[in-house]
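Wait, can you check?
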Amino acid sequence: MPLRLGMDQRLLRWARRIGQGKLPPLFLFTDPERMDIVALAQTLPRGLCGVVFRHDGAPDRAALARRLRAICRARRLALVIAGDAKLALALQAGLHLRGGARPNLTRLPRHMLRTASVHDARELRRARDNGANIMFISPAFPTRSHPGGAALGAHRWRALARRAAPTKAYALGGIDGNAVRSLGPTCAGAGAIDAFLSSQ
């Protein structure tokens, strides 16, 4: 599939300005229909990004994840595996909890990075109970991934994000360099798809 190299430069500048801590301020959410993840990962800014690896239906998912892990290590990118604690452990990667759901393994290292997608207060509480370090609160804005779906908007996103503290609140859904600024200092980072495929 064709790959448009580059990313939203305004979002990149925002991430460089806020990226002071141990956790990367930007995460790419993989989408097998819209990207060659191996090629795209090699273009991500070193030390500034993470990758939430989904690709659930890929027949070679584990092998693809191993290739991605090698790239992430070389470029100092955080790798998080969505919904599969066994694969995350095998790769010494982080784990992404969909809807804040409990991991599919009970014994996980305390230092393992855990991210979670949350859409409401119930999922937020569940993500906190399951040890999430980052909560991707979504959808912040209308998104091409879910056309016509309801979005939180800046005001409701900020209200939910304040309830996430002290867990880091990241924005997901319709994120670009302009939208993310409207969320203010409560927003500690962002996840995106399209913003990594656009050079605007």
DSSP finds six helices and eight strands in the chain. Residues 9-196 form a domain with the TIM Barrel fold (CATH 3.20.20.70).
